[in-house]
Amino acid sequence: MNPLHPKKLLLSKWTALAPVNKEKHFIVTRVIEPDAPGAAVEWVDIDAVHSRETRRIAWKTLRDDTLWRQGWL
Questions:
Q1: Sign of dihedral through CA atoms 32, 73, 16, 61?
Q2: Residues near 22 by Cβ (< 8 Å), separated by ≥ 6?
Q3: Rounded to an integer, what distance in angstroms lies between the CA atom of residue 16 and that of residue 39?
Q4: Quick check: 72 and 19 in contact, CB under 8 A?
Q5: How many angstroms separate the CA atoms of 51 and 19, rounded?
Q6: CA–CA separation, 52 vs 18, rounded Å?
Q7: What are 6-44's pLDDT values in tens digits?
Q8: 48 to each of 8, 27, 31, 36, how far by Cα in Å?
Q9: Would you state the pLDDT for residue 5?
Q10: Which are the contacts of 5, defined by CB distance < 8 A and separation ≥ 6?
Q11: Is it the case that residue 1 has pLDDT exceeding 80?
Q12: 3-state secondary structure of 59
């Protein structure tokens, strides 16, 4: 399990271990703040480095080390 905290995700770099459309390097470009004050962060936007496509994912999926590695490998 990748140790991380949602407040330190912005601009962090990630490598997908199962690339989609030959994209495997991503950067977190936005942390989606919840509507209710004090609620936990649930979503982040990640951009593929080469195609610049944005995907919204639950930030907790980045903790799964069978899917993601922190940094660019």
A1: negative
A2: none
A3: 28
A4: no
A5: 13
A6: 18
A7: 888 999 999 999 998 899 999 999 999 888 888 888 999
A8: 19, 7, 15, 29
A9: 82
A10: none
A11: no
A12: helix
